[in-house]
Amino acid sequence: MHKPGGGKTMDVAIQKKTWTRTRLLLLATAVLVAVVVVVSRMAAAGTAKLNVDPERLTISAVTRGEFQEFVPVDGAVMPIKTIYLDAPEGGTVQRILVEDGATLTAGQPIIQLANTDLQLEMVNRETAVFDLMNNLHNTRNLLQQNRIQQLNQLADIDYQLREARRVYELNRTLYEQKVISQQEFLQTQNNYRFQQRRQQLTRQSLRQDSLSMGQQIGQMQQSVGRMQSNLALMRRKLDDLTIKAPAAGRITSLNAEIGELKTRGQRIGELDMLTGLKVRATLDQYYISRIFAGQKAEVTLNDKRYELRVTKIFPQVSRGLQVDLEFNGPTPPDIRRGQSLPVRLALSDPTQAVRVPRGGFNQKTGGNWIFKVSEDGTKAYRADIRLGRQNPEYYEVLAGLKPGDRVVTSSYEGYETMGELLLKAKAD
Fold first, then answer.
1. Quick check: 367 and 310 in contact, CB under 8 A?
2. Can you spell out the DSSP letters for 264-293?
3. How far is it, in rounded angstroms, from Cα 287 to Cα 285?
4. Which of 45-49, 132-136, 150-154, 190-194 shows the lowest per-residue confidence on average (mean pLDDT)?
5. What is the distance between the alpha carbons of residues 424 and 405, in angstroms, rounded to a whole number?
6. pTM of the predicted structure, to 2 decimals
7. Using an 8 Å Cβ cutoff, are 245 and 104 in contact?
8. Are 219 and 79 within 8 A, CB to CB?
């Protein structure tokens, strides 16, 4: 089309509507149906009633009191320190000197082993040391005799030097007076100088022989010292054939029989120190981030509570997280190694909180609601609640209940769609 006046008109694109009236009506109908279904179900849940015998239910009171997160674990009683006894040397069990479970003092013999190879080696080394000491003694004597001979030879040379000097000085005077010939004087002069040189060489040889003798004797003494050290080590190895208690304690797990062959390093028993007892527990890996050294725990024995603390957390996590706990204060009487103790390991500090006892209701409600018993006890109706922390005994109630309320804590199997339970006992 052309505008009046000769101008051109512009074509305008008409956008197609996505939400038509028909579609909007269909959507509104679907929403209305969904609302009706939800409201009807809620109404049904809120109005449906069921007669229930109260004896089939567990009705618990809501209380306010101390609440603490803890995990129950079984712990095994162990000594605070255990020394493992291994055979330092191999041998045949010759004598067993104590009984399993006996209390020992430090250094007390436990087992006597026999090893003929070590004994024979000991004899051979003793013989070698004896031979070397004899050689050292003989060498020292020979060197000393040689030195005495050299000293005698030096004494003779000193004498001949003095005599040659006397003749030389005399002949020099006579030669100057022209009493003797020059040839005779030169002979005495040469003899005197020869004796001087001879004395120097002898003294030098004596010094070198003395140094050599000292080095030779020193080397032999070092060899004797090393062999004596080896001999002392061999004696200690023979002493190790008598296995002794390294400290005072109680011997346990003693594993030896007369005539049995024990190899080096083989475990023969354990020595429990008598300084105290500890408890070793294994927890689920779920708690690995919530366990730390010094964490508190407690155990109840004969209606008496004993406090413990975590002293060691093992880094290896295979079948669970292992921890060691020691008693804060006196150890419970009459507990024994290997005994199992029920331990409550605290995961938080104790606080005051509204509590509801644990029960099967939470499996169906997810902690969002609970059947609350009316004041007259004739019915139980739904009440919205909010739960917080939990331990094996209680749930912490954050909202919806107050101390003194009574609630149904048993399983809600078959009751989850009911809005109200009519508590009526069966007629006889």
1. no
2. TT-EEEEEE-TT-EEEEEEE-GGGGGG--T
3. 5
4. 45-49
5. 19
6. 0.52
7. yes
8. no
